[in-house]
From TrEMBL:
<dbReference type="InterPro" id="IPR016181">
    <property type="entry name" value="Acyl_CoA_acyltransferase"/>
</dbReference>
<dbReference type="GO" id="GO:0019152">
    <property type="term" value="F:acetoin dehydrogenase (NAD+) activity"/>
</dbReference>
<protein>
    <recommendedName>
        <fullName>N-acetyltransferase domain-containing protein</fullName>
    </recommendedName>
</protein>
<dbReference type="InterPro" id="IPR024699">
    <property type="entry name" value="AcuA"/>
</dbReference>
<feature type="domain" description="N-acetyltransferase">
    <location>
        <begin position="16"/>
        <end position="182"/>
    </location>
</feature>
<dbReference type="GO" id="GO:0045150">
    <property type="term" value="P:acetoin catabolic process"/>
</dbReference>
<dbReference type="GO" id="GO:0016747">
    <property type="term" value="F:acyltransferase activity, transferring groups other than amino-acyl groups"/>
</dbReference>
<dbReference type="Pfam" id="PF00583">
    <property type="entry name" value="Acetyltransf_1"/>
</dbReference>
<dbReference type="InterPro" id="IPR000182">
    <property type="entry name" value="GNAT_dom"/>
</dbReference>
Length: 216
């Protein structure tokens, strides 16, 4: 069943909805500025595709018949180390149209998503990779953007997790964040912790020290 929250903004009423079935998303239009990850039309197709995958979920912010923002939850990509953990779900993307930013829509859509009890059965991760960030429209530099995202995801209790995942270590602003659901077993937590450092050539202690030294 789709849950709906009515959210009043100075630009009009926005409905925060999810998890949304693909057929429902198909009937809506996509705001043309939702192009952060790919062209808006392709992004809509990607959202619909996610709804067909195991545990895939889409939450949207809708104004009239138009999607103005969304978040995605899906299993990690098969090429990622996190795919090997059965209880990891990835918060793969969050995007709010530049027409609708700074109205707390991102905060609200995250809050809505994380009230879903299903997420208590998972370790939800987000891989924040700086080359996806919209530094142009937001006028934020990379590290200020990182801070905004850490606060945003922190608002739903996600925490920074040190790791030697090459996608994260590639750039010092990149960050892995995670929230461990209440029903996740201690065995699954231990497995997750053991997966954070897998590169035998990197000394985990050095990465951790580095992380702390840089105040990250
Ligand atoms: C990051 C993003 C999702 C924020 O969406 P949003 O709806 O504008 O965020 P909110 O209005 O909920 O902002 C919550 C808080 O974050 C901070 N924030 C958000 N955007 C900011 C900006 N451009 N500059 C400074 N602070 C910002 C503020 O503290 C804000 O609260 P405030 O407006 O009361 O000061 C949006 O800019 C976006 O879609 N960016 C492109 C996609 C992206 O980078 N996704 C993340 C990687 S997957």
């Amino acid at each position: 069943m789709i849950r709906q929250i009515v959210y009043h903004t100075p630009k009009g009423v926005v409905y925060i909805e999810g998890p949304c079935p693909g057929l429902y998303l198909d009937r809506l239009t996509m705001n043309s500025k939702l192009t952060n990850f790919r062209p808006a039309k392709k992004q809509k197709e990607a959202l619909i595709m996610i709804t067909t995958t195991p545990h895939g979920m889409i939450y949207i912010a809708r104004h009239k018949k138009e999607i103005v923002g969304y978040i995605t939850f899906h299993r990690p990509d098969e090429s990622s180390r996190w795919f090997n953990h059965p209880r990891v779900l990835e918060l793969g993307g969050i995007e709010i149209s530049p027409d609708w930013r700074r109205l707390k829509i991102a905060e609200n859509i995250l809050q809505a998503g994380f009230t879903n009890p299903v997420l208590e059965d998972f370790i939800v991760i987000t891989m924040e990779i700086s080359w996806y960030w919209d530094t142009g429209n937001t006028k934020l530099d990379t590290f200020a953007y990182r801070k905004v995202l850490c606060n945003l995801f922190g608002s739903v209790d996600m925490q920074k997790i040190p790791t030697d995942d090459p996608d994260i270590t590639e750039h010092p602003a990149n960050v892995l964040m995670a929230r461990i659901g209440q029903n996740v077993s201690s065995g699954d937590i231990t497995l997750f912790e053991s997966m954070c450092f897998q590169n035998k050539d990197i000394n985990a202690e050095n990465v951790l020290n580095n992380y702390q030294l840089r105040g990250l």
